[in-house]
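Q&A log
Question type: sequence-to-structure
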Amino acid sequence: MSNPKEKIWKSLAPIALMVLLWLVPVPGSMPPQAWHYFAVFVAMVVGMILEPIPATAVSFIAVTLCVIGGNYLLFSPAELAAPHFNAGKEALKWGLAGFSSTTVWLVFGAFIFALGYEVSGLGRRIALYLVKFMGKRTLTLGYAIVIIDILLAPFTPSNTARTGGTIFPVIKNLPPLFDSHPNDPSSRKIGGYLMWMMVVSTSVSASMFVTGAAPNVLGIEFVGKIAGVHISWGQWFLGFLPVGLILLIVSPLLSYVLYKPGITRSSEVSNWAKKSLDEMGKLNRKECTLIVLVLLSLCLWVFGDSFIDATAVGLLAVSLMLVLRVVSWSDVTKYSSAWNTLVNLATLVVMANGLTRSGFIDWFARTMSVHLNSFSPVMAVMVLVLVFYFSHYLFASLSAHTATMLPVILAVGKGVPGIPMAHLSMLLVFSIGLMGVLTPYATGPGVIIYGCGYVTSKDFWRMGAILGVFYIATLLLVGWPLMSLWM
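Response status: OK
Response body:
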């Protein structure tokens, strides 16, 4: 818990930065409202990183400030001078637009799916079954963690909730069975490898599905509004699938070689999982119902694009879960993570849209694209993707990184003649989840796993760098050429 002095400076830093930027002379040819809006936007991002109050509260306050100060932040002098233009109403309409975003509600629906896994016990049962059948060897146990993550990812749009709330509670029980303990040399027996595999798997699964991580939704919103590229649930999944399969197959083995555990096989883990399953008993009614709803939703998401929207599928699933009493409405109202994410994503979508609304994106694109005009379109795409990916070393949140960097990178790319915006857009959004492997603070699961003490700081940074390069290289060298065949 932060001390009072730390909380004070964390609260004042974003405000001071906003005031400082506001007072700086407006750069040449930039609309004044764009520069002032940029000052508020930067202050919001800094506030979300420092978190003197919860990040969602920061973004909510930022939207409110922009709605109240719309005359100075959103609208040009020409708009304000237009007859019958009501700045107050238009600003409020802009501020609430994020809550009508279909992708935001898709994530909300997926969160309720995650609640169903938790309430019914199906998530824990799946994890225990895989550990039971694949837990006799450490390497196959690593693959079991990957499979668990992939099975849960389409319906758990928070990788922190997925890893920290479902997978980690099961896996953390395994190392002590082998006398492997945190913050101790014995952690390398097996604990370090198992914990690292959760970082590996959650990073890939977060990129495998639109609903695998909340920032993916921001990505879809940005590429749609800025680049004019619209990506469906099925297009995302099929587009990333070849890369995802390679990463999921190779990463556990590569990690096993580079971070080899001291214990490579044992029957104790399998026996423990079997005992835990016996204690759970047979599949209950809620679990059986949820399995049917999961299969129905997957079929509609993959094959139903022509007659039902992905968000409608999610809302249908939530409705059926309520009708069939997999979850109760009381469960839903108490599930603060879902509502928190709903508000967070809606406000971030609006704030990112404001960069375009105020004119900042157009100005930045014109200014920066001049420096890339000498690059070939292929080289420009590679440079922009690599800058976006490795700049995550500077961020402690995938959402903050996506909200800050993606609109800017897309705008710059849009200004480069001949650049394939569809390819650039897909590569950028596919890389969002993969960044989570880079550092101990790259994403929520990394913080949880690093904090448990099984993976040392040195090992985390070393393995993160190696796997991070492997991930982005596979995306560019395999995913991009294959993308050219179907886009």
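Response note: The chain has two domains: 1-100+343-357, 102-337.
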